[in-house]
Amino acid sequence: MDKMTIGILGAGKLGTTLARLAVAAGYDVLIAGSGSVEKISLTVEVLAPGAQAITAKEAAKRADIVLLALPLGKYQTIPQVELTGKIVIDAMNYWWEVDGKENTISDFQVSSSEVVQNFLEDSVVVKAFNHMGYHDLEDETRSVEENGRKAIAYTTDDVSAGNTVAQIIDDLGFDPLFIGPLKNGIILEPGSPLFGANLVKEDLQDMIDHLPESDFGRKVVEAKEISIM
Questions:
Q1: Which residues, 6+ apart, have CB-to-CB distance to 131 below 8 Å?
Q2: Residue 122's CB: how many other CB atoms inside 10 A?
Q3: What is the pLDDT of residues 104-118, one digit of tens each?
Q4: For the chain, does the N or the C end have fewer beta carbons within 10 angstroms?
């Protein structure tokens, strides 16, 4: 079976890193930035050779799956109609330097991916690729036969979509680790001990198991009444 076409919205450091990994894994990759196609074409040619620069609407329309690597504050610019019925991978995080000092997007009650899912109500959102830094993503990709393969945690309310994204995570060189419904995605966000985690699957699971012992974990469990896996 031919591999799917992945559309990446965001041609910054994370977007171009994931584009390189996806191209290396054999995917067709469409990537869109905030500027014109002409403006980002050279950047994509140099930083993500093999990917095709395109507009966000075209990427959303033509891709089988779309990955969000935009500043979180721009989530309302995501083309909704073109993403109808599609799986959307949310790799976005709140950064005050970019999104402003007042985080009005998410808190302990609502994870940022739930906000994105509410905006993209006709799509299926899966949170993944947000807890590991872009430089680590580049350096840590390994085949399944290699020792020390690192894990990428993901959350979703849709099992089928989760399985599809798990395959992409595996293809890009990481062990997928499902950690429950989309609301659990808050434990992968900035501020959580898990944010920045660059661990093998067993160690990442152990860290998750002990998260309720942390101040952050206690606040999350109390606010969202979730059971951390």
A1: 152, 153, 188, 194, 195, 196, 197
A2: 10
A3: 666 667 889 999 999
A4: N
**Rounded CA gap, 223 and 45, in Å?**
45
Length of the chain: 229
- Residue 69, Cα to own-chain centre: how many angstroms? 7
Q: Which residue has the tokens 């031919």?
A: 2
pLDDT in tens, 146-198: 999 999 999 999 999 999 999 999 999 999 999 999 999 999 999 899 999 99
DSSP 8-state assignment for residue 107: -
How many CB atoms are closer than 10 A to CB 213?
Answer: 9
Q: What DSSP designation does 1 have?
A: -
Residue 222 buriedness (CB in 10 A; 0-12 / 13-18 / 19+): exposed
Adjacent-strand bridge partners of 29: 6
